[in-house]
């Protein structure tokens, strides 16, 4: 009896300890889940209740002389004549860093090849790389040490071959991305104001240039204004966790959610919007270093809101398939595969396979199977299968 009792107690003890362990693990996880769910629910409802954000504009407006400190950096590399005398459909800025020369070369010989675009598509697109100053000493990569010339000299050399680098004298770093954004809008205002559209893109995205050009030509012939298109983030909350790359302090941004904005990986604005954004940068405090969010704040200040295009991908990578190539605009996260993807996506076979009634039916079925998954899968949304 006594022995039995002790056994039971031992068993219960183990049971109790296991229960405690499971509960505490659950609580730790729940807290994380809860934090992000609650903050998204809060910010999302906040966005729909408040919706206007006019006070953001008011509280971030600073005197022009002070706002100038975010834009009056000296140009280290510049091409004032780039757009002169040309009917430019699209000015396309690729945000890049000094060390990413391979990515720039890949873009130059695939989707960003201006000669190809001019010859094959019959329009003028200017592809320009936006960058800041390289870190001296510490961040120098091995190749520049090996060859014995400095980083900036390498860039000057690269620019003399291709003539497509635009660089200002601020340190090229993640926390200076907003300065890079401002540089792009100021450069367009001063050097290429007559371009009909402005696009800004990461250097690891793939742009389906023929599809994009077709689309923009159609928009241009309709004379669109107030046009801002990409993957839209609505009611996104500022991230308050200090460990995150996207951490934003209350001093920097005190509200529960950001105004709507498009993912920085790639978006397009019409020239009237570009001009309004330029005007906004002359009076806003640009210390918020998340560049796409800052773009949202500028747009909000001038009364422009973004529109969703299902084939702009944001963070996601498109599935490899002819039926996707037929409609894709941008896809994120391509470096090594960019040459193959460019070849495959622009191959005449794409149009052959996807045209006609049979082709369209086939592609709808394929796209449904690729995009409409029951679990979360970061690429184009399910509704893209039906457009
Ligand atoms: C760009 O395209 C043209 C014409 O299609 C081609 O001759 C040229 O080699 C390409 N440039 C690069 C850098 O691949
Ligand atoms: C941004 O650039 C400025 C000017 O070069 C520099 O002083 C500053 O340290 C940079 N900020 C960051 C966070 O890299
Ligand atoms: C801009 O905002 C930052 C906080 O994010 C603040 O420290 C700074 O003083 C502001 N600049 C001006 C000129 O008000
Ligand atoms: C934002 O502020 C500026 C200057 O204070 C003002 O001219 C503009 O109308 C404001 N924008 C909105 C949408 O309220």
TrEMBL record:
<keyword id="KW-0333">Golgi apparatus</keyword>
<dbReference type="GO" id="GO:0006493">
    <property type="term" value="P:protein O-linked glycosylation"/>
</dbReference>
<keyword id="KW-0328">Glycosyltransferase</keyword>
<dbReference type="GO" id="GO:0000139">
    <property type="term" value="C:Golgi membrane"/>
</dbReference>
<dbReference type="GO" id="GO:0030148">
    <property type="term" value="P:sphingolipid biosynthetic process"/>
</dbReference>
<keyword id="KW-0735">Signal-anchor</keyword>
<dbReference type="GO" id="GO:0047256">
    <property type="term" value="F:lactosylceramide 1,3-N-acetyl-beta-D-glucosaminyltransferase activity"/>
</dbReference>
<dbReference type="InterPro" id="IPR002659">
    <property type="entry name" value="Glyco_trans_31"/>
</dbReference>
<comment type="similarity">
    <text>Belongs to the glycosyltransferase 31 family.</text>
</comment>
<protein>
    <recommendedName>
        <fullName>Hexosyltransferase</fullName>
        <ecNumber>2.4.1.-</ecNumber>
    </recommendedName>
</protein>
<keyword id="KW-1133">Transmembrane helix</keyword>
<keyword id="KW-0472">Membrane</keyword>
<comment type="pathway">
    <text>Protein modification; protein glycosylation.</text>
</comment>
<keyword id="KW-0732">Signal</keyword>
<keyword id="KW-0812">Transmembrane</keyword>
<feature type="signal peptide">
    <location>
        <begin position="1"/>
        <end position="31"/>
    </location>
</feature>
<dbReference type="Pfam" id="PF01762">
    <property type="entry name" value="Galactosyl_T"/>
</dbReference>
<keyword id="KW-0325">Glycoprotein</keyword>
<keyword id="KW-0808">Transferase</keyword>
